[in-house]
Amino acid sequence: MKELEERIRKDGRVLPGGILKVDAFMNVQIDPVLLDHMGEEFARLFKEAGVTKILTIEASGIAPASSTAMKMGVPFVFAKKAKSSNVSGEDMYTSKVRSFTYGRDYDILVPAAFIQPDDCVLIIDDFLANGFAARGLIQIAEQAGAQVAGIGVCVAKLFQPGYRLLKDQGIRVEALAPIQAMDDNSVIFADE
Amino acid sequence: MKELEERIRKDGRVLPGGILKVDAFMNVQIDPVLLDHMGEEFARLFKEAGVTKILTIEASGIAPASSTAMKMGVPFVFAKKAKSSNVSGEDMYTSKVRSFTYGRDYDILVPAAFIQPDDCVLIIDDFLANGFAARGLIQIAEQAGAQVAGIGVCVAKLFQPGYRLLKDQGIRVEALAPIQAMDDNSVIFADE
Predict the structure, then answer these.
(1) Is B107 a residue whose pLDDT tops 60?
(2) Which residues of B touch A87 (CB under 8 A)?
(3) How far apart are alpha carbons B158 and B179 in whole angstroms?
(4) Which of A23, A95, A114, A152 has the highest local Cβ count within 10 Å?
(5) Which helix (H) or strand (E) covers residue A153, if one does?
(6) How far apart are CA B108 and CA B134, in angstroms?
(7) Can you give the pLDDT at residue B44?
(8) Is there a contact between B66 and A62 if contact means CB atoms under 8 Å apart?
(9) Does B19 lie at the interface with A, CB-CB under 8 angstroms?
(10) Identity of the highest mean pLDDT range in B2-11, B16-25, B98-107
(11) B81 within 8 A of B107, measured Cβ to Cβ
(12) Residue B148: which residues within 8 A CB-CB, separation 6 or more?
């Protein structure tokens, strides 16, 4: 998606350690026009996939999931990151996710009522790097007995293992801005 | 907003202790049509207010802020809840918020770059009860030297102190579903 790639070139910042900051327009402060267009593009890509529900994870997945859900006309659910181990008494699907940023595991939770065996789930997130969050969300869909239509991410770092691992599992992965390589001075996208 | 009030009557659940659960359609699983209409209604209410930026707080404020931002065509920013006291080196506005659910204080953070003195800020959140989060967000806007256009909340519990305290401060508060009273069997809205 050229619009997102150009915006990353213009307003993104590459920090040491392979960190790409897009907080000025995509995941802390969010440009409403870009958000609308990203939702439209995910909706176009997965139009024929029979999606009945969108699944994402707090906090930065919620904005792209919102716009995609509005464009597709299907509900979305966001997984919460557990603050403690005393999960509420409600029937929950849970999965363990490794945090790249914080270097430790956390549990993610989705109330079981919100994903049904006849659902076809589209997973939406802002970033795909190691794929830990995506794999946690796939496990949640599998616990529910639901089908996974695929994963849509705004930005994928193709040089980190997540993208390849998911493709090898036979999962459809669509990245609006697939990054082939990145250094302190430049970002190279896979589709240019 | 009749559509939201009817939905709360139909699919909301009142739990002991004055807890209203709207997680099936508003803040864990989100109905995309309702979300779109709530954004439209906030945009209509604050159309003449000169809003340049929307400010909310993770996680459940992000969806209504997304749809409102898309309808108004202005960016939104979400405050993060600090996981620890080692706030990043970036220039941040911070405020202390008391959590009704967890019974302890936490810090909220917004990068200073994202709210400017010439901004006119609309605060959006899902719930207004004691008003702790709203007052924290107002403090953040004040630290930035920005103007506050008002607060838009999906649901306000008028029988808890937040709504009155904000009005007494001279803040404009718009609630799509203002709840006058609530017991285990029924919800009474202020505008009926």
Answers:
(1) yes
(2) none
(3) 6
(4) A152
(5) strand A147-157
(6) 11
(7) 98
(8) yes
(9) no
(10) B2-11
(11) yes
(12) B120, B121, B123, B138, B141, B142, B171
Torsions phi, psi of B76, nearest 5? -125, 155
Confidence class for position A191, pLDDT limits 50, 70, 90: confident
Does A28 have pLDDT greater than 60?
Answer: yes
In this structure, chain B runs to a length of: 192
Q: How far is B182 from chain A (nearest CA, A)?
A: 23
Residue B47 DSSP SS3: coil
Q: Is A62's CB within 8 Å of B67's CB?
A: no
Q: Both tokens of residue B37?
A: 């209409």
Residue B44 makes CB contacts below 8 A (sequence gap 6+) with: none
In three-state secondary structure terms, A124 is strand
| Least confident residue range of B15-19, B75-79, B121-125, B166-170 | B15-19
Considering the entire predicted model, what is its pTM? 0.95
Q: Collect all residues of chain B within an 8 Å Cβ-Cβ radius of residue A126.
A: none
- The amino acid at A110: V
